[in-house]
Amino acid sequence: MSDRLFNATQLIGNALSIVSTISQLLSTFDINLDTSASFRRLLETSSEGGGGGGRRGKLLGANQNSGGQLKPNAVVAKDVSGQYKTIATALAAYPKNNKGRYIIYIKEGIYDEYITITKDQVNVFMYGDGSRKTMVTGKKSNTGGFPTFRTAFFRNRKWEQRNTLNLLKRKQRNKFAAIGDGFIAKSMGFQNTARAESYMSAFYNCRMNGYQDTLYVQAHRQFYRNCVVSGTIDFIFSDTSVVIQNSLVVRKPMDNQQNTVTAHGRTTTKEINGVVIQNCSIVPKDKLYPVRFQILTYLGHPWKEYYRAVIMESTLADFIQPARWLPWAGTFALDTCYFAEYASRGLGAITTKRVWYIHYHNHVSLVKHIKFHKGTSGTG
């Protein structure tokens, strides 16, 4: 138990490091996170419910969708009010050897285009008029000859070498790719689209709608706050360190399918990474709600041997299976994976029937072993 608690300490300490580092980065955009003493307590945000207007106002300021006092380098609009009519042309105007932030304001509209933020286009900040108003969308689906919708954020080179064919297929499916380091998106929506391999990226007040593997967190460190991520099978698919705060929504899958929220791919004990889902609302989407007890929904399963995930201080609806977590292939990874829950609420948070390999921490057993200090370092 002491070793597992130490692992939890490392993981959440690493998560806190992500929050602390990115908060400094975002302060230049009038997006401020509270990293004071009150914030240290389990990455606590504000007292309002997940995704609520009060929290959004505190996070993004009075003018949440305009980017505060930002002065954009480029304005994209469907009409004549912008400098550019497409996001791609605004990116093409990225100055060579640019030293500062390149800020793009994308006005309301549906932008159905293939977009790549290249490795040379670093520190790009895009913001829109709202996650339901400024949408980057794709039209590829199973019926068009493509596998289930995927939104793949972050891949690493080692994984690329092992999965070249699958990677090429993903490149064909995804219409938005962020490669340049330091990418930030705010007040935008991504539909059936997107991947990123940018280092230290952040997404605020964004919406990612997909089905299988909606959010593919493949490398580096990422932070998602005030975002709605909706999906079905493994819709948070990760191989690295990621912190997600606020809403998650589970959709109705195809026939004969079940839902799993997380699938993490940690392969060695030396990797100090994992998925931290904190202060989220894991609830069924409209079409799933009437049949939510007929379709099995689990919090996750071990994708790789040393899967690690923590779900903490979240609201879990009544459709979560009592066993909580789903085995992947027989007894694979059940002795080495690390699932943990802490201080969640709702009918789906009852833990009396959870599977034996789940670790439920009460206030004493977890907080006693985790020192929450501002700027706690991590190596994931």
Automatic annotation (TrEMBL):
Residues 73-154, 174-372 form the Pectinesterase catalytic domain. Acts in the modification of cell walls via demethylesterification of cell wall pectin. Keywords: Aspartyl esterase, Cell wall, Cell wall biogenesis/degradation, Hydrolase, Secreted. It catalyses: [(1->4)-alpha-D-galacturonosyl methyl ester](n) + n H2O = [(1->4)-alpha-D-galacturonosyl](n) + n methanol + n H(+). This is Pectinesterase. Coiled coil: none annotated. InterPro entries: Pectin_lyas_fold (IPR012334), Pectin_lyase_fold/virulence (IPR011050), Pectinesterase_cat (IPR000070), Pectinesterase_Tyr_AS (IPR018040). Pfam families: Pectinesterase. One of its GO terms (molecular function) is pectinesterase activity. Its main location: secreted. Residues 44-66 are annotated as: Disordered. It is found in: Secreted, Cell wall. It is an enzyme of class 3 (hydrolase). The lineage of its organism: Eukaryota, Viridiplantae, Streptophyta, Embryophyta, Tracheophyta. One of its GO terms (biological process) is pectin catabolic process. Its EC number is 3.1.1.11. Pathway: Glycan metabolism; pectin degradation; 2-dehydro-3-deoxy-D-gluconate from pectin: step 1/5.
